[in-house]
C-alpha cells in the first residue's frame, strides 16, 4: 500500500528522527510513504478566521496532490496534521472557503475535500492494526514505563480531528502496548505544553511543562513519547522540574521493530543532513508570501533569518 | 480605515463566526485555559466584551498574546461558542494594522537556539505578525 506523505518543514531539519524512523518502520510494516513533490509549509497553525484564504492554500495543494494520485494522505507532525485535516474539513463543508480557494487555485478539477487524511498513528491503528504491529516486533521494549504525551493538536477540536476521545484518548497507550512496553496514564497528557508561546513567553511555558513532567513522573513514567516536534522541544528545554527523557513515537517503533542497529552518526544527530532539493518544500514562515530562500539546504534557516534581521 | 467600536465588534463576530449570544457564562472556557493566570481579560470575558462592543479594551489586552491556541476552550464549551476564535479575531485586528506586529524578523536571532524547531518560527510568525 502506497500513501502520499506530507512531512512538513521540521521533519526535514530538526525532527529528522521523526521522519526517517517512520519511513523505515512503514516499510517494515508493509506500507510506503511517498513524499509529495514540492510541498509547501502548512504554516503550522490553522488559520481560524473565516476571511483568510491564502494561509490555507498550501494545505489544499497537498490535499489535491494526493487526490490526483488517488491516494490517502499521511502526516506525522501534529501541527501539519491539525492544519491539513481542518483545512480539508473547510474544503468539504464550508462553501465560501471552498469557492474562494478554488477560484484562486484554478485546478483542472475543483478540490472539494475528497482526500482522506490519516495521521501515521491512525494508519497503524485503522489500516495495519496494533495486533499486526505487535506481531512484527522483534525487540519488545519490555519493562519500560512510557507516558504518552498527546498535547492539543491531534485531539482538539474533536469534531473535526476525530482522532480519539479528546479527554480520555487511548491510541498512543495502545501503541505503547503493541511495542511491548507499559503505558503510564497521567492527568496532564492532553494538556498544552505551551506551543508557539515558548518563543517569547519562557516563564509561562516553563510552568506548563513542569505540570506535565511532574504529573507523568508522579504516576511512574520513565520516559515520554510524542508525535510533535514543538512539544518535544518545549518538554526538553523548558521548566525546572526533573526531566524525563522524551522521544518521538517513531523512534521507539523503529527500535521495537529491530530497525535501529547502530548508534546515531554525528551527522544524523545534529539534524543537518543534506537532502535533495527535489524532495524539499518551501519553508514560508510569513504565510502566503514566498521567501526568496529555498528550504534546502535546511541548515541555512537560522542563518537566513539572521541576515534578514541585520538588514531590518 | 476608522471603525466605531460597534463596527469593530461586528467585524470580530463576522471573521470569527462566533455567536456571542449563545454563551451562558458558565466559565468553563476560563477554567480550562492553561494561560488563565497570565490573562488580564479571560476567555469567558472575551465573549461579553465583544457582545457589549467593548473592543478597545480587547485590542489593548495582553491576553491576545497569551492564548496558546490549544483549543481546550473550544472543546469543552457546552454551548459551542468557541472563545479561541474570538481571541484570534481580535489578534488579527491588531496585527492587520500597520505597526501592529508582535514579532519582527529582527528579534529572531536572539531567540534562536540549536534545537529550536522550524515549526516554532512558522507558527509564531503566523500568530504574531502579518
Brief sketch in words of this structure:
Chain A has 312 residues and is α/β, with parallel strands linked by helices.
How is this structure best described in words?
- The complex is a heterodimer of chains A (312) and B (130).
- With 312 residues, chain A is α/β, with parallel strands linked by helices.
- Chain A folds into two domains: 158 residues, Up-down Bundle (Glutathione S-transferase Yfyf (Class Pi), Chain A, domain 2), CATH 1.20.1050; 118 residues, Rossmann fold, CATH 3.40.50.1860.
- Chain A is built from 13 helices and eight strands.
- Chain B has 130 residues and is mainly alpha-helical.
- Chain B has a single domain, classed as Fumarate Reductase Iron-sulfur Protein, Chain B, domain 2.
- In chain B, 49% of the residues lie in helices and 0% in strands.
- Chain B is built from eight helices and no strands.
- In chain B, helix 1 crosses helix 6 and helix 3 packs across helix 6.
What would the principal axes of the Cα set say about the shape of chain A? globular
The tally of structural domains of chain A comes to: 2
Cα-atom radius of gyration of chain A: 19 Å
CATH domain fold name of the largest domain in chain A: Glutathione S-transferase Yfyf (Class Pi), Chain A, domain 2
CATH architecture name of chain B: Orthogonal Bundle
**Biggest sheet layout of chain A:** 4 strands, parallel
- Residue windows where pLDDT falls under 50 for at least 5 positions of chain A: 265-312
What class do helices, strands and sheet pairing of chain A give?
alpha/beta
What is the gyration radius of chain B calculated from CA atoms? 15 Å
The span between the termini of chain B is 17 Å
Seen as an oligomer or otherwise, the chain set is heterodimer
Largest sheet descriptor of chain B: none
How far from one another are the termini of chain A?
A: 49 Å
Tell me what portion of residues of chain B adopts beta-strand conformation: under 5%
When the domains of chain B are counted, the total is 1
Q: Which consecutive residue ranges of chain B, at least 5 long each, have pLDDT under 50? A: none
Which homologous superfamily in CATH is the superfamily of chain B?
Alpha-helical ferredoxin
Neighbour order of strands in the largest sheet of chain A: 2-1-3-4
Amino acid at each position: 500500500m502506497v500513501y502520499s506523505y506530507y512531512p512538513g518543514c521540521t521533519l526535514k531539519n530538526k525532527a529528522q528522527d521523526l521522519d526517517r524512523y517512520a519511513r523505515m518502520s512503514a516499510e517494515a510494516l508493509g506500507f510506503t510513504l511517498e513524499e509529495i513533490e514540492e510541498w509547501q509549509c502548512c504554516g503550522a497553525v490553522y488559520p481560524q478566521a473565516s476571511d483568510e484564504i491564502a494561509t490555507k492554500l498550501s494545505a489544499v495543494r497537498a490535499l489535491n496532490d494526493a487526490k490526483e494520485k488517488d491516494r490517502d494522505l499521511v502526516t506525522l507532525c501534529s501541527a501539519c496534521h491539525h492544519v491539513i485535516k481542518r483545512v480539508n474539513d473547510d474544503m468539504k463543508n464550508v462553501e465560501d472557503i471552498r469557492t474562494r480557494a478554488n477560484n484562486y487555485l484554478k485546478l483542472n478539477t475543483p478540490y472539494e475535500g475528497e482526500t482522506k487524511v490519516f495521521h501515521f498513528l491512525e494508519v497503524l491503528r485503522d489500516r495495519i492494526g496494533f495486533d499486526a504491529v505487535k506481531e512484527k516486533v522483534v525487540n519488545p521494549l519490555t519493562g519500560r514505563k512510557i507516558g504518552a504525551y498527546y498535547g492539543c493538536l491531534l485531539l482538539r477540536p474533536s469534531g473535526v480531528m476525530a482522532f480519539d476521545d479528546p479527554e480520555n484518548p487511548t491510541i498512543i497507550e495502545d501503541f505503547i502496548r503493541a511495542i511491548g512496553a507499559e503505558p503510564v496514564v497521567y492527568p496532564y497528557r492532553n494538556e498544552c505544553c505551551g506551543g508557539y508561546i515558548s518563543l517569547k513567553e519562557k516563564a509561562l511555558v516553563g510552568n506548563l511543562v513542569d505540570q506535565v513532567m511532574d504529573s507523568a513522573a508522579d504516576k511512574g513514567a520513565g520516559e515520554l513519547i510524542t508525535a510533535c516536534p514543538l512539544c518535544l522541544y518545549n518538554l526538553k528545554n523548558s521548566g525546572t522540574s526533573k526531566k524525563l527523557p522524551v522521544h518521538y513515537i517513531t523512534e521507539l517503533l523503529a527500535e521495537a521493530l529491530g530497525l535501529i542497529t547502530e548508534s546515531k552518526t554525528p551527522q544524523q544527530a545534529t539534524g543537518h543532513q543534506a537532502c535533495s532539493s527535489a524532495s524539499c518544500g518551501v519553508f514560508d514562515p510569513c504565510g502566503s508570501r514566498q521567501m526568496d530562500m529555498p528550504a534546502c539546504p535546511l541548515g541555512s534557516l537560522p542563518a537566513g533569518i539572521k541576515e534578514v534581521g541585520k538588514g531590518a | 480605515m476608522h471603525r466605531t467600536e460597534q463596527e469593530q465588534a461586528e467585524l470580530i463576530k463576522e471573521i470569527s463566526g462566533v455567536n456571542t449570544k449563545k454563551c451562558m457564562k458558565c466559565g468553563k472556557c476560563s477554567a480550562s485555559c492553561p494561560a488563565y493566570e497570565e490573562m488580564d481579560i479571560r476567555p469567558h470575558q472575551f465573549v461579553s466584551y465583544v457582545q457589549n462592543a467593548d473592543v478597545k479594551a480587547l485590542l489593548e489586552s495582553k491576553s491576545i498574546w497569551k492564548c496558546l491556541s490549544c483549543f481546550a476552550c473550544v472543546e469543552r464549551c457546552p454551548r459551542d461558542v468557541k472563545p479561541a476564535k474570538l481571541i484570534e479575531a481580535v489578534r488579527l485586528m491588531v496585527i492587520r494594522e500597520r505597526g501592529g506586529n508582535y514579532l519582527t524578523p529582527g528579534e529572531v536571532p536572539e531567540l534562536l537556539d540549536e534545537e529550536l524547531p522550524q515549526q516554532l518560527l512558522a507558527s509564531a510568525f503566523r500568530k504574531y505578525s502579518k
